[in-house]
Every structure is written in C-alpha cells, then in structure tokens.
Amino acid sequence: MLLTIVILIVCTLLGGLSINFVPGMQKNLRLPLIFAGSYLFAITIIHIIPELFSISTDPSTIGLYVLIGFFVQQLLEYFSSGVEHGHVHAHKAVSTSGRASIIIALMVHSLLEGTLLTHDSPFHEKHESYSLLLGIVLHKMPAAFALMATMQGLGKRALYLLILFSLASPAGLLLSDILLLSADALLIVFAVVCGSFLHISTTIFVEASPDHHFGLNKILISLLGAVLAILVEFMV
Q1: Of 35 and 125, which is predicted with more confidence?
Q2: CA gap 220, 216 in Å, rounded
Q3: Where is 52: in which H helix or E strand?
Q4: HSE-up of 210 (CA within 13 Å, CB side)?
Q5: What band does 91 get if pLDDT is binned at 50, 70 and 90?
C-alpha cells in the first residue's frame, strides 16, 4: 500500500509541475488526454464493470449506482469546470470562490477514486489492482497539469493546492481502510466511481473531436491506450 501511495503522490506532483518544465505542453495536451481517456474507458469496461457485477447480488441496483455516479460526476464538473479531464482555464479570470469550488470538486472526486484501490476482489489481492492504479495515474497527471495552468498567478499557493490534490486519492485509500467500510458500502462507492470514470472518459472523446472528425492519429492513440489497458489487465 505504501508504494501505491507514493506512486499516486509523485505522479500527480510531476503532472502539475510539468507546466514549468515542458514547453508547449498546454497546446499539446489533447493527444495525451485521448490516450488517458481511452485507457480509462477500456479499464472501466474490462475490469471495473465485470468485477462490479460479478460481486454484486443485485445487478439492477448496482447499475443504478453506476448511473448515479455518471451524473454525480457531471455535477462535480459544474464546479470544477472540467479540470479533471484536462480543461485549462489559464486565460480566464478565476475568482477566489471559483478556485475553491474547483479544488473542492477535485478533492471529492479524488477521495472517491482512491477507494477503488482498497476493495477486495476475486480477481486480485487487496491493494494490488495495478491496472486501476495506472488508470488513476494517467487520469490525475493531466488533471494536475490543468489545475496548475488554471491556478497560474497564485504563486506558492498554487503549489500548495497541487500538494493538496496529490494527497486526495491516497487519503481516500487510507480512509476506506481505516473506516473498514462494509462490503456493500464499498460496492456502492465502487459503482459510483465507475459511473464517474465513464463520464470522464467519454467526455474526453467528445471534446477531442468537437467537429465530429476523429483523425487517424487520434484513432491510433486511442487504440494504443486501450491496448495498454488490456495488456496491463491480463498480463500484470
């Protein structure tokens, strides 16, 4: 579990700090986002959904919680302005209340997704869902970058917000372990996060092609993300 926490924190910090070390990254974020979105979508389809419905004794209710998670994420994105899937608002004036709503929404989402890494499963040992860990990392790195781009001008306070964001998923992981949530409660949270991932990944695809033209490079990048998910899921 310690290694998982370190990976989550370090990768999130690297994603946010890359704004200072990777010139032009802000203009070239679309393809990495498509890759991350494709991986997240694939791992949701081949890992999370089969696992959910194999564990559940009431598939219809679980499907309802997945749907709830989809719309909960839509609500969170109303407050976060879509930062969790790479929306950058560097050229817009963001008020203090707007910054607060962004970081709170991101924290809520991150706390929930951290619980995914603690659940028991017939498919893997507790804390050893490496395919999910990689999906969360690929999703959090561009989100951290977008957060830092949006918070430019805050100086050291932006760095403090990044650190806070990097701690959110590990906090969710630790809290779910400490609170010893029942299997049913974890399953509900798991289903809600599944719906959230479906919303984020499909939104990335839609926004990557606003003119409904999905070019060959985008197709290849999305296929690469899906193939990586398959390889990690079935070979690691």
Answers
A1: 35
A2: 6
A3: helix 49-55
A4: 2
A5: very low
